[in-house]
Structures are given as C-alpha cells and as structure tokens.
Amino acid sequence: MQRIIFIFSLILTFTKISSAETIQIDFTPYDSYSIEVAKIDVGDSIEWLPKNEGHNVEFLGGPDFDSLPEKSDLNAFYSVTFNLPGVYLYHCTPHGNTGMLGLIIVGNDFHNLKNIENIELSRTAKSVLSRLIRIAKSDS
Asked: What is the pTM of this model?
C-alpha cells in the first residue's frame, strides 16, 4: 500500500511540474510591455524578452517584499518563477516614471493589493497602475 501511495505522489508531483506554464513578455518599441497584466498560477514562470533595447524589469512590490526577484540587467533575457500568490508590480527602471509598468496576479490572489496601490509612483505611473488594476479586477 505504501508503494502505491508513493507512486501516486510521484505522478502528482510530475504532473504539477509538467503543467506549469511559461508566459513570454516582450519589451516593445513603445516603452511598454507586450503584456501589461499577466494572470498566472503558482509555479508558473514569466520570461521577458529583450526585443527592443533600453529596457529591463525591476520589481517594486509583491506579497513578500523581502523575497522579490533581483532587478534584471538592461537589454537582457530575464525569467522568474512565481511561487507565492499575490499581486506583483514591476517597472522598467529607465521608463517607470513614464508609465512602463507591469502587473502580475499569481493564483488570482489580491490580498496585498492595498500595499501595491500605496507604492509611491510618479503621477503618470500612478495613472497607469490604476488602469492595470481595473483590468486585473475585471478579468478575475
């Protein structure tokens, strides 16, 4: 019986690993991300593709500030696997004040949305964030 439980556990583990998805987001020539609001499951990954120069990814907030991913280099491929549910806000370091923002909703969990809304941003970026939050909420 223990052997059957062990085999079943392995099957479930490999099924979960193989079912994880990867979303690809491009840096566009319009100082934006090709996907501004990404909704993913826990364990999914996002890859940012440097299709245009002068951009990167820097996380401003998430469900656990101490475990946010490091800032990416400019013009570099970047990949993050998200294991904590919640809302993540990121921007392009050189273009964040002009509204180059992205929002990631992991596990359809909005528990830390107030913290994200309270992040200090430029007036333009704050307006973009409001729009992204409306989009995220309308899709939930």
From this structure: 0.85
